[in-house]
């Protein structure tokens, strides 16, 4: 499939589903793909407070399918100062949507999250990521999207973040909350490249797009429902950030 067409084909399927919604055959009370990710996971256990004295900002990169939805969820999390869609895992020359869409560049669609550790803990971000953001048991796919660019991964350059992530994945595996093994990769030392400007704030700017309505808006509702103390009604937009 041509890379630029991937989401548009998926969008065509979403249009069909949207028609079924209008006809009353389906209901957003039971969203098509979101049901797989709106999972109640246990809070991370035994993970030390990662806040460091004098550190006002911390960063981590999450990959969990199409970056539109990943960005959209984290923009609604209190304490998140910015959530930028982009690419990670490949070279600078390949950090373009048309190239990444081939699934051959090593890049994943991802979101760089900058947060205030005094307002939201890393453990809380992990809990959101592994419950409402995506389904961590799906290998190289998420919802209607297929390919290694849609893999589940956490890119943390901080050793404490990596250790906490690995510990939480082990906890989830042992908890039995998921019917299948968690396939999320944990990596670091990779450069993050912001995506093209038209990808930034996509969920905020296009809430009525069929793809967003079917695949991503239910994730926002799940965040609000499952983590009311973390939910921020007004998303923190990328807005004037200098991106390509």
From TrEMBL:
Active site positions: 66
NCBIfam families xref list: msrA
Catalytic activity as recorded in UniProt: [thioredoxin]-disulfide + L-methionine + H2O = L-methionine (S)-S-oxide + [thioredoxin]-dithiol; L-methionyl-[protein] + [thioredoxin]-disulfide + H2O = L-methionyl-(S)-S-oxide-[protein] + [thioredoxin]-dithiol
Q: What is its EC number?
A: 1.8.4.11
Regarding protein family, the annotation reads: Belongs to the MsrA Met sulfoxide reductase family.
Q: What does this protein do?
A: Has an important function as a repair enzyme for proteins that have been inactivated by oxidation. Catalyzes the reversible oxidation-reduction of methionine sulfoxide in proteins to methionine.
The signal sequence is none
The source's domain of life comes to Bacteria
Query: Which Pfam families does the UniProt record give?
Result: PMSR
Q: What is this protein called?
A: Peptide methionine sulfoxide reductase MsrA
Where is the Peptide methionine sulphoxide reductase MsrA domain positioned along the sequence? 60-211
Supply the source organism for this entry.
Stenotrophomonas nitritireducens
Swiss-Prot/TrEMBL keywords = Oxidoreductase
| HAMAP family reported in the protein's UniProt record | MsrA
Provide the taxonomic classification. Bacteria, Pseudomonadati, Pseudomonadota, Gammaproteobacteria, Lysobacterales
